[in-house]
């Protein structure tokens, strides 16, 4: 996977400017490595981040590739290209029945990003590639967050069909209950025998955790994600005369201390923070304290939702 648009660049991790010479870069790497080492007060995550930054900048060829916006490392440490533009559909490798999906995941966020990045660049400025990594990294955090959200929604959408044929999924559902400054839509709604799940896919660029039934973290900037998610789910549920059984926020694996954390309930719905890699199994098994639905009930809820769902 490519880095998030909210990730620190390797220059920022090492604490040097992009025009630092080779000697300065090497000295900064050694100092950063000492600071980040767990034995000297750092952490394993910080230590690995410094090592990864050096792999991207430590040789002239690697640095030149990164500076051209083409350098990156995959989860396995192998070089890769940053892929923030929409990806083409992937061919299926098996014939298992998939969940039924409706809507365009990430579409609203991508359109919003493209509109705002052109406004930010300025009238008359030609943007050859609005997803160019150098351009994205130079954009304000608010714009990078919108693109990060689109990527997060698309990653969730790629995983959810693996729930199987018993489930139905809606993406980018329109709702008027977004609140000031928030997009007027619900990222995902999943219906199956283990419940009706309202899901928000997020990437705040930093870890989050529970406190008194709500999420806290350095990247939140005053947001109250579960309160907003509950309002969106309530608006759609009221129109369809159904109630969600769970409110789920999905984040990158490294942004949650545990794979699945339940934080109580809100308006009768179980509240949960889930790592992206754990999402499918969590929904398939059902969340602790979340009501399951009978076969007839699933059919009734699906019919009611299909009659009222609109897409953003």
From TrEMBL:
Residues 76-85 have a biased composition (Low complexity). It comes from the Bacteria. Residues 9-70 form the J domain. InterPro entries: Diphthamide-biosynth_chaperone (IPR052276), DnaJ_domain (IPR001623), J_dom_sf (IPR036869). Gene3D superfamilies: DnaJ domain. Residues 67-106 are annotated as: Disordered. PANTHER family: DNAJ DOMAIN (PROKARYOTIC HEAT SHOCK PROTEIN)-RELATED, J DOMAIN-CONTAINING PROTEIN. This is DnaJ domain-containing protein. It comes from Agromyces agglutinans.
